[in-house]
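Long-time lurker, finally posting.

We've been working with Bifunctional purine biosynthesis protein PurH (Wansuia hejianensis) and I want a structural starting point before designing mutants. I don't trust myself to interpret raw outputs, so I'm hoping someone here can both generate the structure tokens and explain anything notable. Sequence follows.
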Amino acid sequence: MKRALISVYDKKGIVDFALSLKSLNWGIISTGGTAELLRKEGIEVLEVEDITNFPEILDGRVKTLNPYIHGGLLYKRDNQDHIKTLEEMNIGSIDMVVNNLYPFEETIQRSDVSHEEIIENIDIGGPSMIRAAAKNYKFVTVIVDPKDYTKVIEEIEKSKDVSLKTRQYLASKVFNYTAYYDSLISNYFNKLEGVDFPDIITLGYKKEQDLRYGENPHQKAAFYREVINISGTISNGIKLHGKELSFNNINDANGALKVLKEFEEPTVVAVKHSNPCGIGSGQTIEEAYKKAYESDTSSIFGGIIAANREINKEVAEMINNIFIEVVLAPSFTTEALNILTQKKNIRLIKIDNIDNGEYEELDLKKVLGGILLQERDNKLLLDDMEIVSNRFPEEEELEDLIFAWKAAKNINSNGVIIAKNKATIGIGLGEVNRFWAVENAIERAGNKIKGSVLASDGFFPFKDSIEALGKAGVKAIIQPGGSIKDKEVIEEANKQGMAMIFTGIRHFKH
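Top reply, 14 upvotes:
Generated this for you. Predicted structure of Bifunctional purine biosynthesis protein PurH:
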């Protein structure tokens, strides 16, 4: 008789699976709560301590860590020396392990959990068993995912055994599972010790969905979410309407959310290719939408809109006048939903706590042969800004400068933002030359540029940009400062009658 060792924390489907094994003449070994459940359902089980001749000790910390268990799992069925050893030591074969681990992930996400409880939810025996079974997959079946119960039973019913191909597939799931599990533990201890960049790092992510394709149709892709589901992110958004999000949708939506979180008053961000093409703040969400739309009425077409206030009937009607891929908002009125859902392809995503900016994740960028990790750029340092020009910005100009500075922080370098009345009117970004970014922004601002302000994510290496901006009608500039040409730049600002602020901090984004 073949035997399965069943010991699961997640007991979903386990009774039906055990009944199916029994009907196929398998013996069942079990422990603790799993054994109790199976007995209640009339399933005969053999306790682990009946196999090991040793009771559970240390409050259950030690129960399956025993040669009578691991010998039965790890011996090679085609090795006569192994078989002889088991016969001499009276160790029985264990041909299947069904196990899932203590809920460490769920435990660390609880707000009321203690360190001691977290430690007790680090599984030891479970990982040892399933790794042993997975190592010996040539002879042993190991199941850690209830979704695989049906497949295994069907193969046993059909062929009286589980195929080698399936056992290998199940083993691969085990090593993914234990690697993920251990990553949670290691990252918990890194956080406990205040270690942001450990010598060795393992990052754990869970697949949220397979995507239709990546940046381009010929690229495969999937979306993975952070271990802890942080509110106010695309990973915890609820799709109210439309088809599944694509790779580019998710990337662009993330770009929109990053910008949106900079602003407290009603704000709308329009994004194309993960960069804002329009940002507007106002007294109402309707006013904010109009400003964002009028920033660039062409580029917003086919883009993504993010709002930090509820989408109402008036905003929905304006959105419905153009082609928009995705709308992100904390909520939608019933009237807004009735209007927007008339278009079947638009995606409507409800994101609770959309303005939440309190999360400590690291920023990750993949490079060939490695990854780059850095802290999130979450500083503005406006309290330390210094007015370096002869002219001080007027109150309205100062409000626009702060608005533009927040926007410039979130565009690709070299990047500049021209803004007026808390709306972007000209965006120049992603240039290798800052003057080119300035030229583009001036051109895009057009005749609205008179009396506007500009924010630059980096310093100005030469005075040529200041001269061009002054002649175009820009009245104030905010920038990091720090160039060896700062004196010349300030002199040019004074010559043009412009106000200039140094922040002392740059916001490159590559």
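Before you design anything, note these points.
The CA atoms of residues 217 and 275 lie 21 Å apart.
The chain has 18 helices and 21 strands.
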